[in-house]
Design brief:
The complex is a heterodimer. Chain A is of the alpha+beta class. Chain A folds into two domains: 14-76; 80-159, Roll (PH-domain like). Chain A is 49% helix and 25% strand. Chain A has four helices and six strands; from the N terminus they run H-H-E-E-E-E-H-E-E-H. Chain A has helices spanning 14-45, 51-78, 116-121, 145-159; strands at residues 80-84, 87-92, 97-103, 107-113, 123-130, 137-144. Chain A has a three-stranded antiparallel β-sheet with strand order 1-2-3. The mean pLDDT of chain A is 85. By secondary structure, chain B is α+β, with helices and mostly antiparallel strands. In chain B, the strands form four sheets. A seven-stranded antiparallel β-sheet of chain B has the order 7-6-5-11-10-9-8. The radius of gyration of chain B is 28 Å and the shape is globular. The relative contact order of chain B is 0.09. Classes of the chains: A alpha+beta, B alpha+beta.
């Protein structure tokens, strides 16, 4: 069947800033701890500590920060979702690409999740659950809050039988 | 709790209740069987055995402890026995229990996945049965009635089946569109048809071809190797040395014979225990069909009975590990929502086993009874992509490229032996490709995979919960993709190494088929 629409809707561009802030914050904490606390300690107490190792550590720190800041734009560029007829479609991933299709009639319940930073950005994550045991939750991050609500209402309406 | 005031005697209205809506109609009501108190007494005695002995032998105060334990244990059991009450209405099963902490559990009938009976040898002597009620919550058993008299249990099951039948046929939802099971269900459960019966030789073969034992031996060996490499074995070495010294007094030939005999003894013991275990667990296995409900009965010491409504089956798998495949034997398992397991393991005491072991044609012949309509379905089998051999080879190259430099220091040129990984992985790819196949029919999705063994799974398309197409980095380069089909029970069904186009096409089709099917039943 080639009539399947590939997902075409993009996330909110703001989500890039949110991801950089959220992931970048963690990376920043880890690297600053390693560099400003770990490095002096190592230099003091470990005899084998050498400038080469210091450079390696620096490289690692820079790599980690770079990774945390560079992946969000890429992730954003690859993310597509769509609510088409009776299916919720999503496609995402950089190295590992996933395409997911969830029939609306199979959904058990829907959550709208908004973390504190997400709320600052006016973003929301839609989480959809099916009856499976393993991997039964499907997330669409980085939606505008209004759009997420609209999507949820659309899905609930499509179910139409008040079973959701 | 409006029904409580209704003093309906148990079993007053068995299957003559043609009006489902009134919630008040109590179909059955009852308590646990009094004989369970005897078992509880035994339990309490067993619990107090240690303090009792200590009290006699060591210190009098232990006797007090024993008495307290005994009284508490028995009192708890007595309270539970006195307060537990189950009520079956046309809509739901209610179980009330607790004295200080009251609990009432209500399970809607159309949410009950299966009903299991289990009775250990003691309970059988007393004519008791444990009733296990399973829902799709994923926790397995939702309510456990320990224990009812056998006639009460049978009665409960009859009424439950009849009530649910009514709920399914007259129930709130329209007839499912793509549901294969919608072929005129009988209003009352009809005669019981025998679907499969296991002979003792089947079960013997099941035990003998059980591969878990060989896996155990291999794992033990690997663990020993690992311990040796880590240096954990240094302490063991002292022991081993004295053992070796002791062994050194024998001649090498005798030594080899001795070791061989020991190994054989271990393997033989393992085979014996698994075979015996299988015989005891599945003794007299019978699979029958009544109306739309499958029933299994088996067990020598602990007898088990389990009903499984056909419409609840999420996936049926014919499993042939390599040894069984070689001998042309197969086991059949059926997953229902609620019981989760991963492939190749028996987690739930054999609950998901439908055919313990049979010749392959016989196992195949059972399938239409499990998945009605399968015999009419035509499958256009398709193979996976040949590029998967490239993928595994690429993986092998990667592994070799990592391992060879790593091991070079320790092993010098011997590290080059690790290059053998590459052809090995290529061979693996060839085997996997050879066994991989899939077919999408209107009502069923079929999948076959395996390396040396063969696993054939049928998933009713109406049960599909979600479809995922996954591509790893190497797969992206080669244009391959893995298709994962989620159903409500058991682990997801994975179909690796399709071409991306195939995977997308099948995913789209499955998605639409699942949407078209009714939402009610999973």
């Amino acid at each position: 069947m080639s009539d399947r629409q590939t997902p075409h809707e993009r996330l909110q561009p703001r989500v890039v800033a949110y991801w950089i802030l959220a992931d970048g914050f963690g990376a920043f904490v880890v690297t600053s701890l390693a560099w400003f606390v770990g490095r002096p300690l190592l230099a003091q107490h470990w005899d084998a500590w050498s400038p080469t190792l210091e450079q390696v550590l620096l490289g690692l720190c820079i790599g980690l920060v770079a990774l945390a800041t560079l992946t969000p734009p890429l992730t954003y560029a690859r993310w597509r979702y769509a609510y088409v007829g009776d299916l919720l479609l999503m496609r995402y991933g950089i190295l590992f690409v996933e395409e997911r299709a969830v029939p609306v009639k199979r959904m058990q319940h829907i959550d709208l999740v908004r973390g504190p930073i997400e709320r600052l950005f006016g973003l929301a994550t839609l989480v959809v659950y099916t009856a499976g045991n393993e991997g039964s939750a499907f997330r669409v991050p980085g939606l505008k809050a209004g759009r997420a609500q609209e999507l949820r209402d659309l899905i609930v309406q499509a179910r139409g039988d008040g079973r959701l | 709790m409006t029904a409580d005031s209704d003093p309906a005697p148990p079993g007053a209205t068995a299957d003559a209740a043609p009006t489902p809506p009134p919630d008040a109609a109590v179909l059955a009501k009852g308590h646990l069987h009094p004989a369970i108190l005897l078992l509880r007494l035994l339990d309490a005695l067993r619990q107090t055995a240690v303090p009792l002995l200590l009290g006699i032998a060591v210190n009098r105060w232990f006797l007090v402890l024993a008495i307290v334990l005994f009284v508490v244990h028995l009192g708890y059991s007595l309270a539970r026995y006195l307060t537990l009450e189950y009520t079956l209405t046309a809509q739901e099963l209610r179980v009330r229990e607790g004295l200080l902490e009251r609990q009432e559990r209500r399970i809607p009938l159309d949410r009950i996945q299966d009903l299991g009976f289990e009775s250990t040898i003691l309970r059988r002597v007393l004519g008791l049965t444990v009733v296990l009620v399973e829902t799709a919550s994923g926790r397995g058993v939702e309510a456990r009635l320990d224990a009812l008299s056998r006639s009460d249990a049978d009665h409960l099951r009859e009424i439950l089946l009849a009530a649910r039948q009514q709920l399914v046929t007259v129930g709130p939802s329209a007839a499912p569109a793509g549901e294969p099971a919608a072929t005129a269900p009988a209003p009352t459960p009809g005669p019981e048809w025998l679907v499969h019966r296991s002979t003792t030789s089947d079960l013997l073969l099941r035990g003998l071809t059980d591969l878990r034992l060989s896996a155990f031996v291999v794992t033990g060996f690997a663990a020993l190797q690992l311990a040796d490499q880590i240096g954990f074995a240094v302490q063991l070495k002292g022991v081993a040395r004295s053992f070796r010294d002791w062994l050194a007094q024998f001649s090498p030939l005798l030594l080899a014979l001795l070791l061989l005999a020991m190994l054989l003894a271990i393997v033989g013991l393992g085979v014996l225990t698994t075979t015996l275990g299988n015989l005891v667990q599945f003794h007299g296995f019978v699979l029958t069909l009544r109306g739309e409900v499958l029933q299994r009965r088996f067990g020598l010491l602990t007898t088990r009975q389990k009903t499984l409504p056909r419409a609840r089956i999420q996936r049926v798998t014919i499993e042939q590990p390599w040894l069984r495949r070689l001998l042309g034997l197969a086991a059949v398992k059926a997953d229902s929502a609620g019981a989760s397991r991963s492939e190749g393991t028996d987690t739930t005491g054999g609950w998901d086993v439908v055919v313990p072991l049979a010749r392959l044609p016989m196992a195949d012949a059972v399938l239409p009874a499990l998945l009605p309509g399968l015999e009419r379905a035509t499958f256009g089998w398709q193979r996976g992509s040949r590029r998967l051999i490239l993928r595994t080879t690429a993986q092998g190259v990667l592994i070799a490229a990592l391992l060879v430099p790593l091991c070079w220091q320790a092993m010098d040129q011997w590290a080059l032996l690790l290059l053998l990984v590459v052809p090995l992985w290529a061979l693996l790819g060839l085997l996997v490709w050879h066994n991989l196949g899939f077919a999408l029919g209107q009502d069923f999705f079929a999948l076959q995979h395996g390396v040396v063994g063969r696993y054939l799974a049928y998933v009713p398309t109406a049960k599909v919960q979600a479809v995922v197409v996954h591509q790893g980095p190497i797969a992206q380069l080669l244009g391959l993709a893995e298709l994962t089909v989620y159903v409500a029970g058991g682990s997801p069904t994975r179909l690796p190494d399709l071409t991306l186009e195939d995977a997308r096409r099948v995913a789209a089709e499955l998605g639409h088929l699942a949407s078209a099917a009714a939402a009610l039943d999973w």
